[in-house]
């Protein structure tokens, strides 16, 4: 017999127990309207996205309470609509959320403490040694387990009801590890750290059962959960197994039967969560089904316990090994169709940073399935999850922060740090320390921060069990969230949050009716109260008392838009322009700022009506600030009924606000012609004066053109459409206005058609474009419309052709317009052909040179429009040529495909002559032209080559070489008589040659004949002699002798000297440069001897001398290394004589400072020649010079000291070089010596060839030698001889490693060494005694291996061989003074690196 009767008896007895009725779950108002929520049979289940996504305007709270019967311990009057509707897809929701700006959610959760419960738990720990809290369970009662085995039970008023157990039980069972109430809170199950389970009667406080065999011994109880059945529970232990507990009572004896649902050997289950039904929902298909969710470290399972045990769903779980899986159930109202709704459970499960949502669909006890809904990726790692209501989920991360999340939008509403709560962790329970720690390493590692028994959700509240207190977090009501911000003086944020409530966009809403009308009424009133308080505070306490006007304006710029925004959102413009405007109007700055802030709202059409009084203040303020343009832009957006017409019209006329004038007349008075007539009169007066129009007048004319175009097209100006019943009338009136013969009350001097004439004179082209658009309207295409169109054409001809006052361009524009209209409307527009003849003659008159480009453009447009199609093209071409209309000629020649004549047009047209080259290239290179056309163009281009060269010589040369057929010599012969043109052409050829190649691709450079290059050099000597030297120096391709003759003929000295040096005549080149230097020195002496010579002239002269001297010195330095001593002295001493001789002639000059230039040049020559002339010879030359051999030693002191310093520097440089070389040699020899003396370690004990153990020879008489190589390989000497791994060097036998030498030959990575030693026994010593004596008697020297290693080291050096440098320094100079031409010291770029390399260790 089952325990059902006993349970009923217990329930009956509990009815008389003292229990707070307000928290009795059976007495709560959680019943549903059966008529409305009788769950229908659903043929098609909802889609994956239909569960968590219902819009906020669902059922009202009064109509549908939460399906989970929210019971609040501290506050019971909160609620939110729980229905969630479908959307198309999750991705669509994400994209929509991206477009929504960041909203303000305020403080969503209200934190508090259960002070009485916390105090009594601490008191119990002190008085009865209850221990620290370890687990908590919440229903209509609160149970808290302790570490010493006690359970404290509190009622909803935080009054201690029972203290269950004792410390003696705690010593036997361990800490309380899990707690669970049954459905009516009459029973309490307690799990302990040592594996025991107890059941308590909460009505009497008696112990009903102690269960010790429900699961394997030695494991702690991690979870214990009652199901909806009074006799069925489930538990899980630290071994990862899950058990079903069925309670029975037979003949007064209570028992418990245990059944294993899941074995921990298949993966440890970390958490379990049974689904608790709400039995007030009648006829729900899951009422007879018991569902259990289990989660291990790798997967989630859903199983049905009743009516039969069955696995209905599995899902893999992946994540950080240090994280535990999480489970949470919630019933959700799902709208299946417009009228039908169902309530289905949704399971949220996750691990690490991922949360999944699955709906459980039950069509019957045997037909249950899970459907995926949503997946959320979090930026933090999960520690726990709990539902607050069907739309709000709370996530606890590993940093002990609560994240409140809206499930539908995946938006994070608030983050609260709960680390101060000092959360209780079940680490010791998950490690099962009380039973010896016999758990898996994975479970122990993941359970470091297990808090399943410390984080509990119930009735829309989250309870956190801390070490010293119990913390509770409740969703605030919508008004509380606003009040929190208002108390913190965050009025703008409070208004933004309230607006989200008003619009139904807020998240986690509690206590607000979801009916739109009720919600709008309640929230709107609160927002108005907040707004009034905000305005009052902004004008009093929050307003700066002192400050600049700009600072006050900036302050009000932050305040006023807030008021305007929310008043417009709430449609409370009466409040905006009533109480709020009156409050701001008290302060002048605030009033002005308020009026200015209205402008953007008016221009965006958010504000379309302003009371007349405020509008008057608005206009007056902008007029005082000189911002009338802004008034105009605002007037055209306002409702005309809200304006003072008289005030606005007077203002607009007085300040030329044309858009506002037109808007007021057309919208307010429905008068479309009066403003047009008056404004055209103003424009006509300005045009008739013949002066340059002002910007304001041009703006007026442009607005009138747009206005006329809009009216004739049926559009309102400046925006919108003309009412359909007035459209035809408006078009007719506006057309009559612009084509009227005379204005009202016109003077006798007024010309005919004044309005049309005014518009044509203002902008002919744009006005005719307006007419062209109007001619497309239906009104101009019926029979009457065709007559009106012809009438307009006749008027235009009468006004512009038969009278004066219009330019050729304007006349051309008119006939272009007529030609286009005639082509578009065939046989409906009649124009006399004689008029086109007259226009053609007028435009192409060659005698009229004025407005040439305007007349040509007008003729081009007329031709393109087809207005001259009836005329002969030959005649047109002749007229265009006479008028020099080259673009017209080009157009006509192109029709004839006479491209050679088009080239003439380009050449003759000054504005487009540079385009001739691109035209030639485009025709020649394009395949769309015939060979005859290309040949004719080439001949014409060659015929006018002189003109092309005069345009651009480089482009002409490029065109000749790339596009024109014919040899270069032919072109040169053609231009031979015109040397200046030929020179420019050859200059272009040289530039083309340079551009055709590059340093990377020299083969692409074109090759010119030497005589062509020499001809160019000859011409350059005539026209640009200063460029000859640089050209021949930088280019090749000329013959040396012929070029030298050309330079000598034209006396280009620098180029001649360069060529002589290139030919090997060093003395000849030196003589020419020295002669030039003598001439300039002679000129300098004459200038210095003149008493009245200017200092600037002297400086310029010496600069020229220094430049020439540097050129000669470089010549001498380049060639001294190739000469003997006599030849070198023949170069340097004449140069030194040339510099020193002027000083002798100027000894008597009064101003001695002028001789400093000569002394500086003398020092430069001496320093330059010291590397090539012996110092004694130089000193002798100086001492015998009359300029220095007289007078005191002080006069030549500086010269001699400079020479000695140079000598000391070179001596120091040589000593440093020797020291570096000696140091390097020592370092490398030391490294080689260490390597040679290093001991060798064999790799093994066997010979690498025969594999015999040489440490224990098989034959005691075996006296074979053992050879060990540096690489570590060991061999018997006979083995090496047998394989031929021996060499004879200098009469001595040398062994080499067999394995390494073979690897090297086959391309392996092993390196062989020829260094070896032998481990010998006594007999081997005797055998080799004579050989060792011979070796000791020989002179010590490096063997070939050391020599090879030293050679490799030397080659690896990055610097040049220092040994070679040292050897060269050690050799005395020969008697002839001959220097090796390849010596490093003769290199101009020689640089000695003084930093020594790091020592190299050889291993």
From TrEMBL:
WD repeat intervals: 169-210
Keyword Nucleotide-binding among UniProt keywords: no
Cellular component, GO annotation: HOPS complex; late endosome
Keywords (A to Z) from UniProt: Metal-binding, WD repeat, Zinc, Zinc-finger
InterPro entries documented for this protein: Vps41/Vps8 (IPR045111), Vps8_central_dom (IPR025941), WD40/YVTN_repeat-like_dom_sf (IPR015943), WD40_repeat_dom_sf (IPR036322), WD40_rpt (IPR001680), Znf_RING (IPR001841), Znf_RING_Vps8 (IPR056939)
Compositionally biased spans, kind Low complexity: 11-22
Domain RING-type: 1247-1301
Gene3D superfamilies associated with the record: YVTN repeat-like/Quinoprotein amine dehydrogenase
GO MF term (any one): zinc ion binding
Gene Ontology BP term (one): protein targeting to vacuole
Pfam families according to UniProt: Beta-prop_VPS8, TPR_Vps41, TPR_Vps8, zf_RING_Vps8
Residue ranges of the region described as Disordered: 1-33, 1311-1343
Family: Belongs to the VPS8 family.
Identification of the protein by name: RING-type domain-containing protein
Native source species: Littorina saxatilis
């Amino acid at each position: 017999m089952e325990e059902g009767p006993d349970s009923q008896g217990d329930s009956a007895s509990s009815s008389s127990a003292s229990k707070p009725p307000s928290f009795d779950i059976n007495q709560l108002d959680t019943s549903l309207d059966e008529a409305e929520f009788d769950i229908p049979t659903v043929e098609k289940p909802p889609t994956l996205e239909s569960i968590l996504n219902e819009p906020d305007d669902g059922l009202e709270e009064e109509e549908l309470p939460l399906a989970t019967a929210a019971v609040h311990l501290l506050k019971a009057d909160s609620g939110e609509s729980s229905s969630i509707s479908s959307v198309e897809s999750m991705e669509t929701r994400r994209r929509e959320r991206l477009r929504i700006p960041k909203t303000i959610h305020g403080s969503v959760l209200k934190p508090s403490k259960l002070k009485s419960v916390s105090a009594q738990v601490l008191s119990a720990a002190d008085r009865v040694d209850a221990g620290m809290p370890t687990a908590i369970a919440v229903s209509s009662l609160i149970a808290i387990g302790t570490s010493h085995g006690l359970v404290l039970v509190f009622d909803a008023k935080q009054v201690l009801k029972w203290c269950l157990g004792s410390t003696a039980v705690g010593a036997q069972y361990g800490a309380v590890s899990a707690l669970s109430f049954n459905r009516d809170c009459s029973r309490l199950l307690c799990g302990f750290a040592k594996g025991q389970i107890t059941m308590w009667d909460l009505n009497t406080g008696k112990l009903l059962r102690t269960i010790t065999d429900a699961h394997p011994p030695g494991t702690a109880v991690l979870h214990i959960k009652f199901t909806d059945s009074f006799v069925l529970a489930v538990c899980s232990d630290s071994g990862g197994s899950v058990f079903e507990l069925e309670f029975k009572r037979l003949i007064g004896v209570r028992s418990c039967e245990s059944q294993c649902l899941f074995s921990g050997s298949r993966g440890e289950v970390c958490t379990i969560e049974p689904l608790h039904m709400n039995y007030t929902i009648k006829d729900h298909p899951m009422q007879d089904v018991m569902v259990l969710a289990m989660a291990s470290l790798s997967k989630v399972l859903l199983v049905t316990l009743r009516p039969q045990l069955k696995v209905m769903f599995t899902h893999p779980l992946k994540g950080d090994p240090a994280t535990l899986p999480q489970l949470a159930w919630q019933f959700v109202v799902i709208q299946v169709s417009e009228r039908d709704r169902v309530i289905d459970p949704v399971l949220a499960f996750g691990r690490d940073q991922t949360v999944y949502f699955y709906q459980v669909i039950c069509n019957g006890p045997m037909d249950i399935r899970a459907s995926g809904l949503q997946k959320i990726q979090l930026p933090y790692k999960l520690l726990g999850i709990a539902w607050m209501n069907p739309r709000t989920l709370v996530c606890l991360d590993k940093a002990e922060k609560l994240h409140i999340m809206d499930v539908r939008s995946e938006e994070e509403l608030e983050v609260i740090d709960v680390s101060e709560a000092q959360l209780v962790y079940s680490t010791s329970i998950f490690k099962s320390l009380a039973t010896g720690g016999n758990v898996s390493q994975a479970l122990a590692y993941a359970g470091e921060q297990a808090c399943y028994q410390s984080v509990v959700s119930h009735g829309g509240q989250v309870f956190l069990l801390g070490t010293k207190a119990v913390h509770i977090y409740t969703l605030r009501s919508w008004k509380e969230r606003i009040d929190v911000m208002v108390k913190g003086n965050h009025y703008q944020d409070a208004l933004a949050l309230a607006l989200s409530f008003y619009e139904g966009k807020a998240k986690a809403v509690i206590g607000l009716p979801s009916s739109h009308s009720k919600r709008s009424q309640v929230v709107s009133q609160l927002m108005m109260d907040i707004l009034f308080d905000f305005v009052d505070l902004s004008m009093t306490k929050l307003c700066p008392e002192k400050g600049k006007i700009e600072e006050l304006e900036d302050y009000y710029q932050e305040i006023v838009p807030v008021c305007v925004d929310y008043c417009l959102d709430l449609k409370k413009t009466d409040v905006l322009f009533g109480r709020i405007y009156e409050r701001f109007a008290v302060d002048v700055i605030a009033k002005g700022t308020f009026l200015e802030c209205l402008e953007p709202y008016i221009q965006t059409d958010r504000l379309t009506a302003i009371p007349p009084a405020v509008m008057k203040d608005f206009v007056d303020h902008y007029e005082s600030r000189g911002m009338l343009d802004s008034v105009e832009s605002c007037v055209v957006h306002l409702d005309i009924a809200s304006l003072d017409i008289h005030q606005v019209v007077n203002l607009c006329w007085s300040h030329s606000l044309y858009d506002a004038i037109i808007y007021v007349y057309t919208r307010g008075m429905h008068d479309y012609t009066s403003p047009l007539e008056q404004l055209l009169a103003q424009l006509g007066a300005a045009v008739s004066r013949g002066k340059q129009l002002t910007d304001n007048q041009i703006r007026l004319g442009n607005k009138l053109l747009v206005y006329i175009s809009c009216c004739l097209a049926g559009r309102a100006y400046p925006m919108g459409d003309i009412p359909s019943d007035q459209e035809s009338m408006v078009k007719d009136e506006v057309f009559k206005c612009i084509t009227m013969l005379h204005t009202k009350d016109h003077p006798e001097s007024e010309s005919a058609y004044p309005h049309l004439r005014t518009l044509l004179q203002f902008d002919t082209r744009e006005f005719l474009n307006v007419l062209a658009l109007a001619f497309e309207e239906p009104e101009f295409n019926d029979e009457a419309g065709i007559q009106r169109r012809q009438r307009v054409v006749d008027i235009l001809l009468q006004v512009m052709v038969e009278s004066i006052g219009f330019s050729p361009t304007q006349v051309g524009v008119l006939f272009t317009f007529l030609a286009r209209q005639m082509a578009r409307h065939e046989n409906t527009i009649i124009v006399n052909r004689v008029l086109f003849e007259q226009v053609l003659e007028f435009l192409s008159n060659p005698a009229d040179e004025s407005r040439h480009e305007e007349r040509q453009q007008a003729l081009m447009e007329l031709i393109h429009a087809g207005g001259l199609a009836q005329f002969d093209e030959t005649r047109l071409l002749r007229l265009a040529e006479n008028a020099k209309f080259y673009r017209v000629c080009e157009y006509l020649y192109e029709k004839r495909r006479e491209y050679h004549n088009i080239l003439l047009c380009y050449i003759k047209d000054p504005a487009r002559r540079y385009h001739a080259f691109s035209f030639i290239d485009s025709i020649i290179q394009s395949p769309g032209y015939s060979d005859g056309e290309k040949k004719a163009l080439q001949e014409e281009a060659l015929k006018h080559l002189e003109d092309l060269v005069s345009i651009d010589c480089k482009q002409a040369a490029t065109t000749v070489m790339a596009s024109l057929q014919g040899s270069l010599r032919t072109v040169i012969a053609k231009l031979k008589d015109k040397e200046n043109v030929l020179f420019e052409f050859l200059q272009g050829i040289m530039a083309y040659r340079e551009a055709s190649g590059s340093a990377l691709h020299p083969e692409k450079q074109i090759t010119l004949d030497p005589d062509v290059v020499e001809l160019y050099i000859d011409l350059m000597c005539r026209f640009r002699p200063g460029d000859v030297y640089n050209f021949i120096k930088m280019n090749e391709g000329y013959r040396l002798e012929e070029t030298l003759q050309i330079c000598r003929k034209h006396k280009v000295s620098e180029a001649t000297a360069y060529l002589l040096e290139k030919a090997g005549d060093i003395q000849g080149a030196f003589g020419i440069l020295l002669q030039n230097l003598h001439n300039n020195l002679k000129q300098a002496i004459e200038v210095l001897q003149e008493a009245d010579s200017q200092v600037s002239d002297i400086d310029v002269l010496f600069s020229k001398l220094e430049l020439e001297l540097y050129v000669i010195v470089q010549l001498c330095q380049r060639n001294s290394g190739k000469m003997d001593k006599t030849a070198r002295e023949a170069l340097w001493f004449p140069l030194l004589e040339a510099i020193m001789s002027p000083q002798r002639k100027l000894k008597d000059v009064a101003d001695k400072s002028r001789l400093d230039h000569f002394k500086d040049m003398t020092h430069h020559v001496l320093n330059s020649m010291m590397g090539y002339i012996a110092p004694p010879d130089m000193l002798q030359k100086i001492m015998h010079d009359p300029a220095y051999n007289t007078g005191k030693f002080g006069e030549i002191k500086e010269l001699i000291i400079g020479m000695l310093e140079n000598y000391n520097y070179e001596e120091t440089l040589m000593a440093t070089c020797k020291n570096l070389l000696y140091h390097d040699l020592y370092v490398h020899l030391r490294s080689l010596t260490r390597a040679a003396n290093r001991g060798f370690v064999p790799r093994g004990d066997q010979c690498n060839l025969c594999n015999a153990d040489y440490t224990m020879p098989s034959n005691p008489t075996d006296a074979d030698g053992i050879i060990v190589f540096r690489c570590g390989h060991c061999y018997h000497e006979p083995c090496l001889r047998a394989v031929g791994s021996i060499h004879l060097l200098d009469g001595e036998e040398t062994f080499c490693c067999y394995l390494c030498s073979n690897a090297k030959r086959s391309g392996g990575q092993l390196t062989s060494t020829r260094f070896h030693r032998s481990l010998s026994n006594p007999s081997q010593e005797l055998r080799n005694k004579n050989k060792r004596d011979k070796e000791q008697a020989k002179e010590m020297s490096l063997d070939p291996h050391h020599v090879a290693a030293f050679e490799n080291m030397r080659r690896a050096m990055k610097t040049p061989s220092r040994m070679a440098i040292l050897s060269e320094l050690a050799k005395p100079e020969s008697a002839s003074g001959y220097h090796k031409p390849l010596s490093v010291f003769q290199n101009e770029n020689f640089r000695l690196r003084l930093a020594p390399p790091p020592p190299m260790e050889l291993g």
